[in-house]
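Appendix C: a fully annotated inverse folding record. The material below is reproduced so that readers can follow the format used throughout the book. The structure is listed first as tokens, followed by the designed sequence.
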């Protein structure tokens, strides 16, 4: 039977009932023995991708951004500060250990809401610990879990003091789809003298070589709405009566946004050098 007329069933029949056969062709100078096999191996092991959280320098709290104002120091220096308030919450809802969950972390709940605002799994998780329904649950991965228990309230004035450096993370204000000038601070073209390019992007790469657009090219697209962390901000004032703290500088988001405040990571001080 000519090789050109062999079909898959016939090849499979030849494979099962005869030893490997040589294929002769004008493209090969010598006969090549080819062991044709149609068995597919589907039992290959897949590599597991482990996603690990970063270790915190200490336990933190969640707060609500209230706005910005000017703060006057004793020497009349004006400092722009962000006022962060705290609603009911910042309660330990779960303590995770290496024995039960594979890592050490403290889960904290924040902002009390009505029962119907949560799903049944979320509500059951909090009812199991005997806690009030809370909107936000976040974990703080720590090296040591000494002194933490379920139901413990985390007081802001006990964790931080004036002059401490903190890391503040939150979601930035969403700007929607924006062009290159607003999104990446590009320069615009001439507006007069016959120019036809005003706010257009311009060239995005060469022609034949490489013949494509490089990945990561700065172009128009969605702007904002990302989780950002601002590091090493100084706490200027802690007001226990108003239950607010004043942090130097700007933090992500608009008034009303959720903020995560943790002790600043300083290598060699509260974070090992290795």
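Designed amino acids, in order:
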């Amino acid at each position: 039977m000519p090789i050109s007329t062999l079909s898959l069933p016939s090849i499979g029949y030849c494979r099962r009932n005869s030893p490997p056969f040589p294929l002769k062709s004008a493209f090969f100078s010598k006969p090549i023995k080819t062991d044709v096999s149609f068995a597919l191996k589907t039992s290959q092991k897949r590599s597991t991708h482990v996603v690990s959280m970063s270790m915190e320098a200490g336990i933190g709290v969640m707060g609500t951004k209230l706005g910005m104002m000017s703060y006057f120091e004793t020497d009349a220096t004006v400092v722009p500060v962000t006022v962060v308030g705290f609603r009911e919450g910042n309660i330990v809802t779960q303590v995770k250990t290496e024995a039960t969950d594979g890592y050490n972390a403290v889960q904290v709940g924040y902002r009390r809401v009505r029962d119907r605002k949560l799903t049944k799994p979320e509500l059951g998780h909090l009812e199991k610990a005997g806690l009030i329904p809370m909107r936000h649950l976040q974990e703080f991965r720590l090296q040591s879990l000494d002194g933490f228990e379920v139901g413990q309230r985390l007081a802001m004035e006990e964790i931080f003091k004036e002059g401490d450096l903190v890391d503040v993370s939150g979601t930035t204000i969403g700007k929607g789809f924006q062009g290159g000038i607003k999104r990446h601070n590009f320069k615009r073209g001439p507006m007069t003298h016959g120019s036809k390019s005003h706010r257009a992007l311009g060239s995005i790469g060469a022609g034949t070589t490489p013949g494509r657009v490089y990945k990561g090219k700065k172009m128009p697209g969605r702007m904002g709405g990302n989780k950002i962390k601002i590091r090493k901000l100084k706490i200027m004032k802690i007001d226990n009566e108003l239950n607010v703290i004043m942090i130097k500088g700007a933090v992500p988001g608009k008034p009303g946004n959720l903020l995560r405040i943790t002790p600043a990571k300083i290598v060699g001080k509260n974070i090992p050098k290795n």
